[in-house]
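Researcher: Next entry in the queue.
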Amino acid sequence: MTLAEMRHGLDKKQFSPRELLAAHLEQGRRLDHRLNAFTVRFDPPLATGEAGVLAGIPLSVKDSLDVAGYATVCGSPARLTLRAARHALCVERLLGAGAVLLGKTNTPELLMNWETHNTVHGFTANPYHPGLTAGGSSGGEAAAIAAGLSAGGMGSDGGGSIRLPAGFCGICGLKPTPGRVPATGHFPGVGLPGGLLGVIGPMARTVSDLKLIFRVVSGHADSDPFSVPAAACDFPDAVEVLAFDHPDTQLAANAFGLDPHEFRWPHWQRAFAVWEFFFLRLNAHAIGFPTPHTAEFLALPPPSAEEILAMFAARDALRRDLLELMSKSTVLLLPNPGVAPWRPGEFPGVRAMAPLTLANLLGLPALAVPIGLDAEGLPRSVQLVAKPWAEDQLLRFGEKLESRRGPFPRPALAQAS
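Model: Structure for this entry, 417 residues:
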């Protein structure tokens, strides 16, 4: 069932909240030993009992989000005893809308990988093929949702960390504009330059489900320095689609009944290099010890103030250039990222993730939507990218495309008796 169907069934008293919770707990007992999606299960699940749009809906959250009384481990042995004093703001908002929180889900160490594996909690498997990765860094969240262990939840994204695992696990994920969803209570904390690149956002099995969660967690908060006290912008429903030339975007055009124009932009390489500077080179020295993709940057001297200012200026110039190409109604259709899930340790390289990093660098909202299964039975996915603050336009458009595609096939293991 989708989250929206659960909401309807609860409202019509076709089943009770207790029955819905029991079904999710049973699915977890049956499957999580194969997936390793959860790092901790709340016993009992967290709930306020309040009425709201998510009342009685079992959800989960990425382990990078604080939950009072529990450690925000993020796969790091050094964080095992650092228990949070209060909930992340999005967790408060989910509970305030009546959600039932089942637990926290696995990440790579300090979120610095596109494969969810760490020495504390181990490897998270792909529900469609348990021998392959679920992606990262929100891999545990994606696997839990895809396999029916959770109806939806929250991830975070600084270089595709919502969209990649959503794509690998056949679900949907929204990377919002920075400031649209307050990231208060996320580790790493909100600040420059991370706050320009990284955001938290909803993950669910359908775009319609994303809308329900997004409406709950979005909105201004003084506790987030990037938060903007503004209502959603009024973008038109009718959109012009510009598509990057790739087999996945061609497949999406066929699945969704689109006839897009070709998207050409000469600054892809420069945009990736600037993102790499902010996300990998700066983080390498901030973290202080090697991670899978920052080790090479530790051999370089820390960036100077002049270098950092030059990169901020480059980022602004790239953002201006791309936004001038996009009208108020333009949506970009990009691969997500255009590679299939890999076996543990067979990562295809950071440059293969480049299609994901554009939206992070330039502060654009991006929506991951599955389009079909490949010859191996693995999900294929694309991302829709819009102008800043156009999340509502993206979600409306994504719902239309989803209805044209039809229901997406769930993992066989999730359906087995």
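Model: The radius of gyration is 20 Å.
Researcher: Noted, moving on.
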